[in-house]
## 1
Amino acid sequence: MNTTTAPQVINSEQLLKHWQGHRALTRHVIEAFPEKDFFEFSIGGMRSFSKLTSELLSIAVPGLKGIVNRTEEPYSEEKTETLTTKVQYLQKWDEATEEINQYFKQIAIEDFEISFNLFGQYEAPIIQNILYFIDNEIHHRGQGYVYLRALGIEPPFFWTRE
């Protein structure tokens, strides 16, 4: 089957829009946290939302950059700069959003089915790597929703995408 001419359920432009919609919602979740709680609050030994956000920042752009450049750099959260304020996190989030747009557009449609060893740990077609980025963000954002509710803060509606 020729995947470049086969009917599609979603094209790469729609996938990027979908991903960026999730990123916009995660940004709203970051904004909803009080500064202190963003860095300190956790439940049941889980990481703070700032640490979860650091993980998301250390996966999306470095992973996408690795896919585009076909480099299998090991995953490392320590490679990301230390951020100490929520404003810095939001700025870094916005910068990462723009980088995702730039790198994503460099992936040819025929490359989505090529196998890539993400961070040297996850061998799968590139489309699966990208879906992992999205799924991981949704998972951690869910933790953020639990934290916000535990703090008595109404989280953003989950369907918010702008």
## 2
Amino acid sequence: MKRSSLTLAASVAAGALLALGAPLAASAHVSVEPAATSAGSYTVLTFSNAHGCDGSPTTGITIDIPQGIDSVSPTINPGWTAAKVMDGDRVGQVTYTASTPLEDGYRTTFALSLQLPADAEGETLAFPVLQSCEVGETSWSEPTVDGEEEPEHPAPTVTVTEASSDEHGHAGASDSEADTAVTTETTAASSSQSNSGDVLARVLGIGGLAVGAVGIVLAITARRKTSA
């Protein structure tokens, strides 16, 4: 019985370590969000990194831009300088250089605003990342193949889904909703003012009647005193 209990306890402990180890292993990669978005859409891809090169602080990040993406707008990070590396008429890479090296175990993100290719529906776009450190560097560029084990240094990827029919209609919809909201608020304000005016008129009318009634009572009282 004791051996069975020890075996069961060891199995549970091993399972717990595996369950905890899976997310820790995943978090050790350079990742990108969102992992999927529609063809032709304008989006902001956020790359995250929370580790150095075998413990060495990170000094730079270089992100390769896939073919088909021509225009990229890097977000400026405090403590980092950003630069575009051109490949002919398009942005081929975006580099971030740290003013102060990022210590191992501290997380930061790098956001790129861009438009995905309209003809890339169903494709998986890889964004290889070169991580430079005070000592050494790590190339996150290995392809991930379905059905095979994940490589040690996988490239961040984005799956391109079906294009949305109203991909360019969000701004118009937002403007329409905003106009509707303004109209509703204006109508509500007018209605409120109208109701307030009606209430005030009623109060004044009732007040006038009360004053008139008091005047009549005083007049009758005065006449009675005069007759007496």
## 3
Amino acid sequence: MVDAGDDAPDFSASLVTDDIEPFRLSEAIGDGPVVLAFFPAAFSSTCTDEMRTIRDEFDRFPEACTVLGVSTDLPHALAAYREEYGLPFGLVADPDHRAIEAYDAIAAFEGYGVDAVARRSVFVIDTDGTVTYRWLADGHGQEPDYAAVADAAAATTN
């Protein structure tokens, strides 16, 4: 399990912004803190509440901070989701489970015929590639302390 103080595991996936392009976490590290907000499924109620709250609190994050939502959804689904909710940050499509496995942020989801989805969790990574903050949901519907996440990101820039 990745914890605060550990080196951030690298992974590759697709990044959904205004376009869809290849993404490697190690290439995003160095300019400012990186926030990885793992969420189970686009368009689901709690996930949408979480992503909209991050959107609405986006100005609390340092200017150089890279905020990324990460789910196992396909890139085109995340593109539609990002557009529908006006998300100002990128979404990482991880259908191959590279990111959720690297961070051990896996939740079972057999009830829908899906092996696994992202466990709702948040990791803050500093410019040296060290995890400085970790939060893991303990149950269904639980959301992170958004102020604590923003504060953790800000603390890495001091």
## 4
Amino acid sequence: MQVSIVIGNPNPGGRTTRLAEAAAKHAVETLGASDHATIELIELATVADRLFRWEDEELAALNQSVANSQLIIPACPVYKASYTGLLKAFLDRYGNNGLAGTVALPVMMGAAPHHALAVETHFRPLLIELGATVPTRGLYVLESQMDDLDAVVGSFMETAGPLLARAIGG
């Protein structure tokens, strides 16, 4: 099983990355794929200066790798009540149905509860527009929950895990 984590945070290696990695770990465990999953971490901040070079071979390979994944976990902090431009620029490299055949779990982190619907109202529709199957609601985690990250993601996965498994076919 191939899992791609795509981090749309301009600051690589931060809380958003930890959140997405926890989501991937719990998803893989829930799917019973711990012993045969490959998890690829893509920090878009490391390629940000090249996102608009359409002929970039490394970015084309990253896009293809994500499109070939069974599960993608795109993650970003809430910026201006939506996803980051960094993540949008990467996803804009896909054509219509460019993510068809993938299952996506959108993940967002925010400072306040009033942005919790950003994952549903902005992020989820973008993934669906690109052809991804999004069988669960997205995961929104408050920065203040980071100390309890394992419990928060584990609780979310109790409901989301079976839906992901059904969508992936496991």
